[in-house]
Amino acid sequence: MLLDPHAPEAETPHDAHPSLDLSGRWHCALDPEGAGELDQWFRHGLPGQPGRPGQPSELTLPGSVQHQGLGDEVSVDTPWTGSIVDRSYFTEDRYAPYREPGNVSVPFWLQPRVYYRGAAWFQREVEIPDGWQERDVVLHLERVHWESTVWLDDRLVGSERSLTTAHRFDLGRLSPGRYRLTIRVDNRTVVDVGPNAHSISDHTQGNWNGVIGALSLTATPRVRISRVRVLPDVAARSARVRVDIAAGGAGAGKGSVRVSARRFNVPGEHEAGPVSVGFEAEYSRDLGERGLTAGGAHVDVDLPLGDDALTWDEFQPALYDLTVELVTEVDGREHRDTAGTVFGLREMGVEGTQVTINGRRTFVRGTLESCVFPLTGYPPTDVDAWRRIIAVCRAHGLNLLRFHSWCPPEAAFVAADEAGFYFQVEGPVWANQGAALGEGRPVDAYLFDETRRILDAYGNHPSFVMMAHGNEPGGRDAEFLASWVTAWRTYDPRRLYTSGAGWPAITENDFDNIPDPRAHRWGEGLESRLNGRPPETRSDYREWVESRPRPIVSHEIGQWCAYPDLDEVSRYTGLLQPRNFGIFADFLEQGGMSDQAGAFLQASGRLQLLCYKEDIEAALRTEGFGGFHLLGLTDFPGQGTALVGVLNPFWESKGYSTAEEFARFCGPTVPLARLPRRVWTADQEIEFDVQVAHFGAAPLDADVTWSLRDQNGAELGSGPVAQGVTIAVGNGTRLGPVVVPAGLTAGPAQVTLAVTVHDAAGARYENDWDLWVYPAAASVDVPASVVVTSDVEEAAERAAGGATVLLELGADSIGNDVALGFTPAFWNTAWTKGQAPHTLGVLHDPQHPAFRHFPTGGTTDWQWWEVLHGAKAMLLDELPAGLRPVAQPIDTWFEARRLGVLLEAKVGSGRVMVSSLNLDPAGDRAAARQFRHSLLSYLAGDDFAPEESLEPDALRSLLR
């Protein structure tokens, strides 16, 4: 396994340093007992197959050992990295088949084909070419998980433990010839950053072991450029270039730095410079074992970019390619080096309670990237992979990715720079669930070290606009993070800083990333806004804006679940397997509902999308608000299995939502209607205000109109809202009120209100809201042919005698623990310890005659809120398997109970409709009255002809 010294050297646009690519086949051995160092494997060679007797194994680097099949079979004793909140898997009988050796399946995250935690050794021979002996040789390992130790022949070079940046080892000056290079990687917890941190956890990427990305040996000059930082000045249309110079030997010298730049990535060429600055320096060298540079020089160069320089943002991502040339003379000998970087003329700021970019107010529309890559179990390091992810986000109207407790590779920043896309980067820390900050633990120093590494490695990227230390800390976090924010904002002022994602909200923050301003907060259950209050589109978070002097970017909004897409299983062709989906499919089959999986996905998904729309619009309605982070656009495979995305973990559609539909309510320009209600009667005028959330490149001159359409898209009415209005950048443009005259439809009807902004330049922005119009006086009188009762015994007796019965079961009479809500489950019931609601909407056939006078689409929509609020689901497990309810709540996939809120059956010679919905018609409950009217009309008509029969005891079972 000899590296060919005559192979073509790797080249990069700015790097004149000759290098050798180390990718390819390596010897490998696993070392779970830690014997390798004691037995000096670096000296004697690797002992055999992965940690076991036999012949040496080989694998390919870059890569991980697990992805290439090295590791142990998963068992119930696998030492996972990550918290398991619901531990019923280890004790309950229903999970017993999945605990059997050889057939272990876990329900709480994706499961690797093999698992390994411990040390792994990689070894190969390399040959140093002629001509490198006057240079320092550096080993570059782009991303390691996570502690690496390197030997060259028998010499220990050193160790690195960054989870965020490349591991670099100075091998010193080497004579041409052959050497044995040994790398030991340990993926055990080196520092307690928190068991659920996405940088290390089995919840997401998995605790992989190996080296990914670029692996190379590079020959560097004796005097070289060690770091280039670019500090743009938008007002002056210039950039200060800060150049650090390192020396590979002692001595005094002088030199010059020459800086130039050219613009690319947007139409039109533009060049700046060159500008040269001379300097003198004293160089010293630590002559210890590693031969590290101990001294150098620093030069600042101000580079005017010209009055026609273009700024960088999401609308115009103008990039500049910077070249730095160094010429030095040390002790009479000349040295040359060249380096470069890409930057954008971009400045982040704060204006009151809003974020600005280049002085213009913007609105953060973000989602999380939690290091979820099921095929490999580790993040991609190629630019194309990240271009695809960013393109999907942009198509959905988003402008930011938040990297939850991890930092992406260089390729992600490159792709974001090109696209004009924003990043919130975090340190690899979620110091909670046993870990903590500010208590003198090793994680404190580690966080500071990692922050410096992140800023030095990626700080020039204009896409890197925000930073938090990590996620949701514990300990003495406020005190500790106050110093963290202050220190790093001083060190690198090119972005906005916040203490942590989630908390704490401290005065030192540039913005607060807090979880309170959202439609459903942790623990609110059925008291959250969408579950506890009638639907409207006026709610916003202005009280939160008024309570804070800084911008608020709301933390992890949404978290609405959809049912598992069981057809998705075939996509998992790599390391991580959805064995959890297999368990859920079995539970569904045991409940007699396996044929409904696709319908459950569709129905729950449409409800999920409806909730995301209202969540996002509430944020956009809030004047002075900073933005939001979704959790998330994609499913989160861990923490019990949190299927909260409209996309799967591969960033692909799940079939019930499109990017175009999502972007109507999530984008730079979104029309908004502030409606006091969703349900109207035909004699009421529909009155609302119009608001435009416009965070585009410039103000708009536009006409704004409204229209009301029926379910087929035919226009019922339309009119102007405003003509020739200037819409400023922001969300303060309020228009109206608009009054839609009564009587455009007599009802009952579902109608769509659309608001359209027609830009003078020809652009068109439209958004819409479903409304329901019912007759003003829907009768709820009980027909003479129908018996209405809330008593099961009376219902059984009357039906047995041939009567038609509506049995109304109140929530207090039903004894099960299923929490029925309007919204789908929040995050997932396993991780939240069963927080309400437990259901994911109500599946029904919209063509069923029971809904003839209550228009519905087969999924839960806003007109269902009144009848679901205060209702209770019935357990149907003791009913005949063939009986499908007329309206069926979808249970959490961890339980897969057969539920109903409306069912019909023959009892004796009579017929019964059983309802556990809230059909109280009193007060301002037009939807409940209409539903009751539709139901009674059905029961009194000839269509009421149930096919299944029930015994009286079966009716009694519904009270459980």
UniProtKB/TrEMBL annotation:
GO molecular function: hydrolase activity, hydrolyzing O-glycosyl compounds
Domain Glycoside hydrolase family 2 immunoglobulin-like beta-sandwich residues, every copy: 223-346
Alphabetized InterPro entries for the sequence: Galactose-bd-like_sf, GH, GH2_Domain-Containing, Ig-like_GH2
Listed Low complexity bias regions: 45-56
Single Gene Ontology BP annotation: carbohydrate metabolic process
Chain positions covered by the region annotation Disordered: 1-21, 43-73
Pfam families: Glyco_hydro_2 (PF00703)
Feature: compositional bias, Basic and acidic residues: 1-18
Superkingdom, taxonomy of origin: Bacteria
Similarity remark: Belongs to the glycosyl hydrolase 2 family.
The protein's name in its UniProt record: Glycoside hydrolase family 2 immunoglobulin-like beta-sandwich domain-containing protein
Organism: Promicromonospora sukumoe
